[in-house]
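Predict structure. Chain length: 253.
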Amino acid sequence: MAQLPDGRALPGKLFIVEGIDGSGKSTQLDLLRKWLISQGYCVAFSEWNSSQLVKATTKLGKKKQMLTPTSFSLIHAADLADRTERQILPALKAGAIVLADRYIYTAFGRDVARGVPPAWVRKVYAFAVRPTVAFYFRVPLEESLRRILDGRPALKYYEAGLDIGLSDDPGESFALFQKRILEEYDNMVDEFDLTVIDATQPLVKQQEVVRDIIKPLLVGALRAEPSAWREVLAADSVYGRYLEEVLPERSEQ
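Prediction complete.
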């Protein structure tokens, strides 16, 4: 079960995914969401930096390059606090499964990589619900950079870490910034008992591992009423477009 900061258990389950850019975590979470729905579970989804409360402020700050590492950290904390109150807690209290694409460990990685003190960041996010399982999709830096930079348009200012002066070259700055974040993630594995997934494995294999880990934890999770959408997902084995490249024969059947 998920837990409140004081240790009290919540009826629902909170599964979150983490990893540096290009680790494939969002794809894996989407596959997991479709599979859970096909199994009849009531699933809620929450995404990092998606709260309407801070959207305008974040957009303006990025456009004018006004955000310092500390202000960036506080805006993201406000984002999670709002989503926790409006989305995450209500769903967990109802017994539903909540899937989160990035969670507090994103802040612990990125903010510290920007020079914010680790203890301060952890204290800022002390309000966060403790996840049932926190998946960390670990991928070598070189592979991550290949996935992100191949055929991609220009990197954005904050995305590349240009705000912290690692390099004037966006590509080099991005690589150095991601290296720092990767080091922070690796340091967090033992501290927060992150469940490490080898993100260099085939997509299907990764998904099998994720499902095997959470299956025993689904007992008592809220189920939804039968629907045509769920039946479609189940009939298609919940793979869809993600397997068209690795298993092209499926689309020919």
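Summary: The domain at 13-243 is CATH 3.40.50.300 (Rossmann fold).
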